Amino acid sequence: MDTQERTGGTSEDFRSLVDLVARGGLFVLTGAGLSTDSGIPDYRGQDGVRRVMPMQYAEFVATSAARQRYWARSYLGWQRFSAARPNAGHAAVTSLQRAGWIEALVTQNVDGLHTEAAASDVIELHGGLGWVVCLACRERTDRMHHQARLDAANPGFTAYLDGAVADGSRVSSQIRPDGDIVLADEVVSDFRLVTCQSCGSDRLKPDVVFFGESVPKERVERCLAALERSRAVLVLGSSLAVMSGFRFVRRAAALGLPVGIVTRGMTRGDEQATIKIDAPLTPTLSRLVEVLEGAPRR
Fold first, then answer.
1. CATH number at residue 1
2. Packing angle of the helix pair 243-255, 217-229 (nearest 10 deg)
3. Is residue 45 part of a domain?
4. Does 46 reside within a domain?
5. Domains identified in the chain, total number
6. Judgement on whether residues 14 and 106 belong to the same structural domain of the protein
7. From CA 93, how far away is CA 99, in angstroms rounded?
């Protein structure tokens, strides 16, 4: 694939994208770039360099202090993360699904915005922040219920989010892709954890796959089975930097399936891409839906 095909954005590239989608049977994989227009930032810039480093799974499970740090940040971050709404890019994906172009919809995002945008049968590869699981007894609870319990245990703590710290040195109100914010240690130390209502453990974790944690085997197998039934792969808004998503592009290449990628900047899967478009996601997807309206199935 030559340089122009890799960097994309030309009218020829877009026509190739339309042709790819119009074949139907798409395995769609979405990433953080699809949710940036909803106010949720992604992990990396267009240069591919990671801007934030989420807490690692090994660190989270190691100590109560680490869990206290995580939940203090996530508790405040949830106030704004949960307020995010689907954007026109999510709506475009739902339109493609309803029109019958999509065989499987897999997302690496944990924000639940595909489901809120009325997409169906969404496979959340990394889980969703809307649920909390106890690592000791596996009890699973709704995040809103968990937030209410944290509210009761930490009266007045949201003042940090509301700008009570004038110099900005102790709190950043900018949410991060995994739903937390930056807090200084002296703020974290004031936060009180709650324990599992079934077993009393403080090993409560969002029901998402942390960095350093493996995607459940049965979920991977479900995705691979869907990929085997598909005619092409379309990656939207992902740098494919982590193997959990990149494995599907590698598998598609091994099967001889065409791969389309639409995102800003370079990706780990550029060598496997049949077509690569480096362009803003939301307007590109909206235009794609417009062009495909009334297009015959092939």
1. 3.40.50.1220
2. 30
3. no
4. no
5. 2
6. yes
7. 10
Please choose, from the candidates 102, 82, 88, 139, the residue with its C-alpha nearest in 3D space to the C-alpha of residue 27: 102
> What is 91-124 written as a DSSP string?
HHHHHHHHTT-EEEEEE---S-HHHHTT--SEEE
Strands, E assignment, 88-223: 102-107, 122-124, 127-134, 140-142, 171-172, 182-183, 204-208
Catalytic residue among 114, 126, 145, 146: 126
Q: What pLDDT is recorded for position 244?
A: 94
3-state DSSP assignment of residue 256: coil
Q: How far apart are CA 146 and CA 149, in angstroms?
A: 5
DSSP state of 156: T
Helix (H, G, I), strand (E, B) or coil at 164: coil
Same-domain check for residues 79 and 91 = no
Q: Is 114 a residue of the active site?
A: no
pLDDT tens sequence across 233-280: 999 999 999 999 999 999 999 999 999 999 999 999 999 999 999 999
Adjacent-strand bridge partners of 235: 29, 261
**27 part of a folded domain:** yes
Query: Tens digits of per-residue pLDDT, 144-197?
Result: 999 999 999 999 888 877 554 444 444 454 566 666 677 777 889 999 999 999
Closest by CA to 200, choosing from 244, 134, 259, is: 134
Q: What is the dihedral of CA 233, 111, 57, 173, to 10 degrees?
A: 130
Residue 110 structural domain? 1-40+86-126+214-298
Q: What is the phi/psi pair of residue 244, to 5°?
A: -55, -35
pLDDT tens digits, residue range 23-66? 999 999 999 999 999 988 876 555 445 556 678 999 999 999 99
Q: What is the pTM of this model?
A: 0.88
